[in-house]
Structures are given as structure tokens and as C-alpha cells.
Amino acid sequence: xxxxxxxxGWPEGTIVRPTLPGKDYYxxxxxxxxxxxxxxxxxxxxxxxxxxxxxxxFITTQVAHENVMSVLTSDGQIKSYYNVxxxxxxxxCEGSSGHFHQGRIFCPYHSWGYNADSGxxxxxxxxxxxxxGFCRDDxxxxxxxxxxxxxxxFINFDKDTESLEQxxxxxxxxDIYERYHFQRLRLGHKKSYVVEANWKLIMxxxxxxxHCSTIHPELSRCTxxxxxxxxxxxxxxxTKILMHAxxxxxxxxxxxxxxxxxxxxxxxxxxxxxxxKGIYYFFIFPHLFFAVASDYVFYFSAWPMAGDxxxxxxxxxFEPEVLENPEYDISDAxxxxxxxxxxxxxxxxxxxQGNQSKAYEHGGVLIPNDWxxxxxxDYVRNELAD
Length: 386
Ligand code: FES
Ligand SMILES: [Fe+2]
Description:
CATH class of the largest domain: Alpha Beta
Bound molecules: FE2/S2 (inorganic) cluster, fe (ii) ion
CATH topology of the largest domain: Naphthalene 1,2-dioxygenase Alpha Subunit, Chain A, domain 1
Number of strands: 18
Low-confidence stretches: none
Oligomer: single chain
Helix content: 10-25%
Distance between the termini: 49 Å
């Protein structure tokens, strides 16, 4: 009997090849290099525009040892600054979110004050205005580039890199998702997970479904991995950081991508018949995974905390009407990806443990089903190369 291949197979020319060596998943120097070459030079998604409601609202983001505060200015932009006082370097605000009263940011150490709209230093207690050798204008907060696309907010530590639009290849690269109107969707639920695994393992796991039938009984019931995918590569171009992974098809009897497959919310209004029967996956490197179902979108962002530890933040997006109407329940979608995610984190932690062994010094092997993992490894390797 012929073997039924996961996702219907792999692209022509896919070869068996080695993984990255084990030390790339824990070595401190390698981790530092990844921070410099990837994390501090690439667009990173810090959230959804609707998370900032009023001028002065801020959200902080921890990226390894850096912390960034992103604030909604009085003219409606989201601006980001390093969360570092220009006097002695104190963190300015603690916590993951809050509000800067009257648009002022005060340092908790010696009370220097900054304008949240511009980052300008506006208050230095007990310093004469004409103090020789000191000019307030020289000590504004350092900015971090911030741009938005389709309702998602991105930052980039690199002042000189290409725009978000160029990096994502917009608008063409998003044609296929246009009918989902990501811009219009709203955040219905958010949950953070600390995973004891290197950030690359989190992404690599999401990039293959070879593991689905072993560790995801719920997901595999809903979208059996052996039903061939609906590929989209010919329709939509990817970029260096954007990878489309096509659509998996719902099993007969399933109307939705949930535990029991029962439809409890309307379909997204503009999607096709074919869209209704599947779920699209795409990735934005280095740290985003998207699952685009017919009535909700789940995505996660992964953030390195250390070489062997990652914070993963799951987000569930819905039509605004669904969130406003108490008759609609979103818990089936939330539970589905919460359960599936926890299964993935457990697997990733086991891989981390094995990768630190002498037995994995030279790494393992990528089989054809892992072909997207291979592409991701190439991306990482290319970025790290000088
Ligand atoms: S460190 Fe911020 S005012 Fe001194
Ligand atoms: Fe998985």
C-alpha cells in the first residue's frame, strides 16, 4: 500500500539534510550573535493597534535584555522609545502596560521628566537652566522605529534598515489575506507562555506538521495531516521574512477549526467557499506564526528571554461584532489553540533538553517533511553570516 504523505508531500528537489548543530540552541555566544544579527535588525510585531486605546497609553516589550516602551501620542501615532533614562540609565516604567498621565514620562529615580509625544527631556529637578556643559536637548529618549501594517504594530531597533512595507513585500505579498481584512479584526484574547526552549525551536516546531499526528490529537481530528494542503505559493510571493504555508483542509463533518468543529460564529464575510473549508498558515521570521481560520485568526509572537528560554504570546483575533455581542462565545477558538500550543511547548522543551546533549553535538537530520524548517535554518544561517 502506498504511504499517505503528510500534507500531500513536499516540493520537488527537497533533500535530506543536516539540522543546525546542537550548540546553536544553547550556546551563549551564538545567542548574542543572533540578537545582534537578527533580533536587533528585523521588524518585530509588538501587538495590535487596538491595544492602545487612549493617548498616553503605553505597552512595554522585552526583547532579550532590551526593553521598549511604545506609546500612543496625542496625534494618534504609536511611537517607541528605549525604556532607559538618559541620566543614570534607570528603567523608566515597569510593568507590561499603563498610561502616561498628561503625556509625561517620569523617571522613578531622580524624577527627570520626558514628553511622551516626542521623547524630549522637559524636566530636570534642581538643575539651573544655564548649567554649563549641560543642554536638555541633548538628552531626549532614544527612539525605536515603529510602523504598522494591517492592524499589526512592528518595531525595529535598526534605524537604517528597509521599511516594514518593503520587508514584507506589501501589498502583493498579502493579496491572499486581503479578504480576511486583518485591519478590521480585534484582539479578543491574549495569553503568554514561558517555554524552556530556544526561540528557533518554537519556530521550527510551528513550521512542520510531521509531529501533528503524534502530539496533537485535537488538531489532527480537525485537519488530518494526511489531507493534502492547498498550496498558495504560485498565487502569492513571499519575501525573505514572509513564508506562506498554504491551507490545511478541515475533516469531513468539521465546519470550524475548533475542538468539535461546530460553527458558533459567522464566517468572515468576504472569504470564499474554499476558505471556509480550511485554515491558512503563514510565518513572518524571525518570530511570528499565523493560523487564519474561517472565523478567527490565531497568531503568536516568540521573544527570546535567554538562549534556552522563550516567551511566547498567543493572540486571538475576531470580527469586532463578535466581540461586542455577548451571544457569541470565543472560548472554543481560545481553548483549541491553548491546548495545541501547550502540546507544542512541551515538545519543544524536550527537544531543547536533547539538543544540549553531547549526542546531538553535530545535530540531527531534516527529512523532506521538514523542508520549511530547512528554509528557516537557511534564513538564520544567512542572517548570521557576515
Ligand atoms: S536615572 Fe532617571 S532621573 Fe536619574
Ligand atoms: Fe504543533
